[in-house]
Amino acid sequence: DIQQLAHIPMGENIFAVNLASVAEDLRRDPIIKELSVTRYLPNTVSITIHDRQPVLQLITRSGRYLADAEN
């Protein structure tokens, strides 16, 4: 869930939200290719995400790995 990954509680004062920190937290998810985090007054933080599109799946004993056209 994006809200959990972003660590923004529902009802949080939008001036208390550190947009750079939210973006950094979200970039830790390898499926996220690009994102933007924007504040809109009076009460909205908008997160736009473009996911990676897997083109290869490798299943091994140690786990499942996905790769897109760039990695």
Taken from the alpha-carbon principal axes, the silhouette is: elongated
State the major sheet.
Answer: 2 strands, antiparallel
Q: From the alpha carbons, calculate the radius of gyration and give it in angstroms.
A: 15 Å
Distance between the termini: 24 Å
Please provide a written account of the structure.
By secondary structure, the protein is an alpha+beta fold. 20% of the residues lie in helices and 38% in strands. The chain has two helices and four strands; from the N terminus they run ααββββ. The protein has helices spanning 2-6, 19-27; strands spanning 32-40, 44-51, 56-60, 63-67. The strands form two sheets. Strands 1-2 form a two-stranded antiparallel sheet. A two-stranded antiparallel sheet has the order 3-4. The longest helix is centred in the N-terminal third of the chain and has 9 residues, at 19-27. It is elongated, with a radius of gyration of 15 Å. The model has no long low-confidence stretch (mean pLDDT 90).
